[in-house]
Amino acid sequence: MLPGIGVFGTGNVVKVIVPFLRAKGFKVEAIWGRTLSTAEEAAKELNIPFYTNKIDDVLLRKDVDLIFIICSPNLHAQIAVKALGIGKHVLCDKPAGLCQSESLKMVHASQYYPSLISILNHSLRFLPAFMQMRRAIKDGYVGAVTILDARVQTGSLLSDAYDWRCDDAMGGGILTLVGSHVIDLAAHLTGQRAVRVHAVLRTFSPATDRVQGIRRISASDFAAFQMELDGGALVTANLCSSSHLPGSFSQEVIVSGEKGQLTVRGGDLHGRRRIPENDAGKCNHHVKEEVLYLDVEDLHQEGQAPTGAPLLPRPYLKGLFKMVGALREAFQSVEDRKGWVKEPVALAATFEDGQYVQAVIDALRRSSRNREWVKVNIVTEEPDPNPLLSAAVRRSAISM
């Protein structure tokens, strides 16, 4: 029994994922949009029976048991916490809220309802090349990991009109939209987490042909950062998005160690391993290069996006499809519509992982502003919303 799905959001990702969900046997029962007109337009285009601009109208439907949150980040925590509280499974797009306090609310909700699925869309975890890379690292292919280097170049991440993607405070920018994947992937591949970071963030295009005048873009389109991990490894990342590169995308992730190197380019995995040789009593090394995985799978066999809808970059799209396939396996093996098994989605990023990523992003932003190395601090308690009032209450209690 596959659960009915309620979707929050009407963007391009929604137009890609809904047809694939149907191809996998899911029923998309309802869709939410910021305005009733955008919700109606998306519902007609995607053939979804119910649409609304009210959050509760989707959450309270009896035929909806799985929530896909693919809307602006300022609503992620609100919808996720409320959905878990009324017994709905949740798949949330990155990031997990706009700040750590929002991420922490999501963490507490997921811990309070452990019988419900609560995962984040860090889809590169499910890309076959990175699954093979992680397995090779565990098997000792590179030995102890010393460096992880990520380079991503993409076209513009902005919409045609001014929206949250243009505003750094609202979750826009290449650091949040792409860097969050790199931060999560580094922890997933190495098993190590960042303790200290340094970053340079820039917005080289504060305006575009469609976004100009009094509207200014504050979201970063360039990010270069370093992270020191708690196991001794070092992460370096260079991320660049530009409206001058429409449609172009390239991604390379290199993991180096004392024994060799693993490289994922796009969806392919290559390896270089140092093999010892004995020559007249002297120990020399030669490098053995090999192809460990080639991405030959056709995306159209996985699912077809609506004609004319801009696709995500191929690695992220394929990872998302694989994650949805894992969700299907998690639900399909049980007869109860709300029942599920954990193993197929065990690789998925949890809300705790999302809070860690948010903590690193916060530290990277502080580092760029202050131009110094910054420690990563993960909060364990929600901050006091009104510290001045709380202090006054404490003083009055003492005086009494």
Fill in the keyword field for this structure.
400 residues; alpha/beta; nine-stranded mixed beta sheet; seven-stranded mixed beta sheet; 34% helix; 26% strand
Architecture overview:
- By secondary structure, the protein is of the alpha/beta class.
- The chain contains 11 helices and 16 strands.
- The chain has helices spanning 12-23, 36-46, 55-59, 76-85, 100-112, 128-138, 174-190, 299-302, 314-332, 351-370, 387-399, and strands spanning 4-8, 27-32, 50-52, 66-69, 89-92, 118-120, 145-155, 194-202, 222-229, 234-242, 249-257, 260-265, 268-279, 282-293, 349-350, 374-375.
- The strands form 2 sheets. A 9-stranded mixed sheet has the order 14-13-12-11-7-10-9-8-16. A 7-stranded mixed sheet has the order 3-2-1-4-5-6-15, sandwiched between helices.
- Helix 5 (100-112) links the parallel strand 5 (89-92) and strand 6 (118-120).
- Helix 5 runs antiparallel to helix 10 (351-370) and helix 7 (174-190) crosses helix 10 (351-370).
- Mean pLDDT is 86; it is low at 301-310.
In short:
The protein is an alpha/beta fold and 400 residues long. The chain is built from 11 helices and 16 strands. The chain starts with a strand and ends with a helix.
